[in-house]
Specification:
The chain is of the alpha/beta class and 473 residues long. Helix content is 35%, strand content 19%. The strands form 4 sheets. A 6-stranded mixed beta sheet has the order 13-14-17-15-16-18, sandwiched between helices. The chain has a 5-stranded parallel beta sheet with strand order 3-2-1-4-5, with helices on both faces. S-adenosyl-L-methionine binds at residues 224, 300-302, 305, 330-331, 382, 411.
Length: 473
């Protein structure tokens, strides 16, 4: 993090702008809107500066920059079209340990102006640290269309009730849950309809009610790794949960989207590292919900496709614990798509099978003959450890040795790697390429299309390749 984002109160604080042209004018308008006590030095001034001086909003100093003009100032902005003058301002300010902004010269900035979305008292700032201001502005424009105008009145309303809520509810968790009830209530709808008095009355009514604190469990699919593949509902619940119980397969980038003050409990689930047995995980969900917690059970992929979500729900039902299930993009769909492999294709595969490489101990053997039919795509989850056995069984069941296959490691993530070969080479590829989990096996004629349909990252020059994220354009 190159800059620390701060919101600074500038009301009546002395600020100096060096420059009187159009660039200085834009910075001055922002500073005046924040209540700064503004001084501007320049040999010439845009007409707007003269109008501000007439209204008593700014002090204009006709002349050239001198270091003593910095005395007593909190901030200084160098906004002239003369690089030498801007450099002199930066050096003088730096010598005094002052914060300085040199317009369009990021290395000479001790602070920067972000793109701002103003829904006062809600304020959102977006910055690229001066490296891509046009991109930051485009992001601001996108967010402007998403954020409703009633956010400001809503913040003002809840601000008036803040002391009453603190007096009634002891502890941060209880207060947060109350405010979440408010933000999901008719209070918001009344403000949307421009009925502030009705919204205030509804908020007062909510404060007088005392609903029982009821726990709930949300079984949520996090997808294969790319955070942009999360569903909107998954993201909403991750932000509302008191506790997030997650697996190793949930990527760090997705965990960054969990609410900052939520408790996080890792229950493992990856090859060779089961930190908590499934039965204990089931009991943990029950205990947390009975304690009145909103629990997000976050799983890689989809919770109902080799995710054992059904087993966890079976533990909740006898305890009468409310639950809901949020599907996620399963690894087969997500990883194959990012690798450029269609799971079905009219010319190559008319069906697809999803199977797991890990079965219950003493469980039935997979139907290898069914899995070995031609013109079918076979996707094997968690199959890396048993790669040699899978290869041997499929060949013995009649699948052709030259059948194309792909091993997709860390699918959909920036470190995604795809290894291609044939079924006869499966065990050797896993060993030679040192494939690690999470990894998915895709076996079938559709893999032959991968080199042509590949799209994620740079086109590979060899059969084994790393794929970086595509550029944002």
């Amino acid at each position: 993090m190159q800059y620390l984002p701060l919101f600074v109160k500038l009301t009546d604080k002395p600020v100096l702008i060096v420059g009187g042209g159009s660039v200085a004018l834009r910075k001055a308008g922002t500073l005046l809107s924040a209540g700064a006590k503004l001084s501007v030095v320049s040999p010439d001034f845009a007409p707007e500066f003269l109008a501000w001086q007439a209204d008593g909003k700014a002090e204009l100093l006709a002349g050239y920059f001198e270091p003593q003009l910095l005395d007593g100032k909190l901030l200084v902005i160098a906004a002239t079209d003369n690089d030498a003058v801007n450099a002199a301002v930066y050096e003088a300010a730096t010598a005094r340990n002052m914060l300085v902004n040199t317009v369009d010269d990021q290395p000479k900035c001790g602070f920067i102006f972000p793109s701002i979305i103003d829904r006062s008292p809600i304020l959102i700032a977006i910055s690229s640290f001066g490296t891509a201001p046009v991109l930051a502005r485009r992001l601001r424009e996108k967010l402007e269309t998403l954020l409703p105008q009633h956010l400001g009145p809503l913040a003002e309303l809840v601000g008036r009730f803040r002391d009453k809520v603190k007096a009634k509810f002891q502890g941060f968790a209880a207060r947060r849950q109350f405010w979440e009830r408010v933000f999901d209530s008719e209070v918001v709808r009344e403000l949307e309809a421009n009925r502030p008095d009705a919204a205030e009355q509804r908020l007062a009514d909510l404060l007088e009610t005392q609903p029982a604190r009821e726990g709930e469990v949300w079984i949520v699919g996090a997808g294969p790794g790319d955070p942009e593949l999360l569903t909107l509902k998954a993201l909403q619940l991750m932000q509302q949960a008191d506790v997030v119980v997650y697996d190793y397969l949930v990527s760090p980038q997705i965990m960054e989207l969990v609410r900052r003050d939520a408790e996080r409990i890792c229950v493992g689930k990856k090859a060779g590292a089961h930190s908590m047995p499934q039965q204990d995980t089931n009991m943990l969900l029950v205990q947390l919900a009975k304690a009145g917690k909103k629990v997000c059970r976050l799983k890689g992929g989809d919770p109902f496709i080799f995710g054992r979500g059904g087993e966890e729900i079976e533990a909740l039902i006898p305890e009468n614990i409310p639950f809901q299930v949020v599907p996620g993009i399963t690894a087969a769909a997500g990883c194959a798509a990012y690798a450029g492999i269609p799971l079905t294709h009219r010319d190559h595969a008319q069906s697809v099978q999803f199977v797991t490489g890990h079965c219950r101990k003493a469980g039935d053997e997979p139907d290898w003959h069914s899995m070995s039919r031609p013109n079918q795509t076979l996707v094997i989850y968690m199959g890396i450890i048993k790669a040699a056995d899978i290869q041997q069984q499929l060949l013995a069941a009649g699948r052709a040795a030259e059948t194309p296959l792909a091993i997709i490691e860390n699918g959909t993530r920036r470190e995604q790697r795809v290894v291609t070969g044939t079924l006869a080479e499966l065990a050797l590829l896993v060993e030679q390429q040192q494939v690690v989990s999470p990894a998915l096996l895709v076996i079938g004629e559709v893999v032959s299309l991968q080199s042509k349909l590949h799209w994620f990252g740079q086109r590979p020059k060899a059969a084994v390749f790393a794929q970086p994220l595509t550029n944002l354009a």
